[in-house]
Amino acid sequence: MVTRLYTGDDGQSHFEELDMDTGEFPWGELKDATGVMFRYDEPGKFIDWHVAPRRQFIITLSGQVEIGLGDGTLRYFGAGDVMLADDLTGQGHTTRAYGDVPRISVAIPLD
User: Fold this and answer.
1) Is residue 52 a contact partner of residue 101, using CB atoms and an 8 Å limit?
2) pLDDT higher for 75 or 24?
3) What's the pLDDT tens digit per position in 25-80?
4) Using 50, 70 and 90 to split pLDDT, how confident is the model at 110?
5) Contact 64, 103 (CB under 8 A)
6) Edge-to-edge strand list for the sheet holding 93-98
7) What is the 3-state secondary structure (H, E, C) of the chain?
8) Which residues, other chains included, contact 96 with Cβ-Cβ below 8 Å and sequence gap of 6+?
9) Residue-wise over 71-106: b if at least 16 C-beta within 10 A, else e?
10) 23 has pLDDT over 90
11) Distance of alpha carbon 98 from its chain centroid, rounded?
12) For 52, which of 8, 19, 41, 96 is 20 to 30 Å away at the CA?
């Protein structure tokens, strides 16, 4: 399952679950990417309101992350969770390394 974080018509970030059977990223289909970047965040690291710097998959390898939206929604992603960061405009979201262990993640920018 992949969760997409995107900007709605209201300028706010929202979540949606992508359909991996019929959507843009069907199971087993190779997609182009521009690179890969690993990230290490200490527990509690907080990044205030921001948009995604580019359209990219973010995969949490260990630890957890809390993503906050403008409407107060908080969503948590842990090891093995995949998010498509696609909120390139608007208010954006907040990010916090959640829990008491570091969060390690990988970003895969898309063409």
Assistant:
1) no
2) 75
3) 888 888 889 999 999 999 999 999 999 999 999 999 999 999 999 999 999 999 99
4) very high
5) yes
6) 46-50, 93-98, 64-68, 74-78
7) CEEEEEECCCCCEEEEEECCCCCCCCCCCCCCECCCEEEEECCCCEEEEECCCCCEEEEEEECEEEEECCCCCEEEEECCCEEEEECCCCCCEEEEEECCCCEEEEEEEEC
8) 44, 45, 46, 47, 65, 66, 68
9) eeeeeebeeebbbbbbbeebbbbbbbbbeeeebbbe
10) no
11) 14
12) 19
Q: Compute the CA torsion angle 66, 68, 74, 76 (nearest 10 deg).
A: -20
> What are the structure tokens assigned to 56, written together?
């990219």
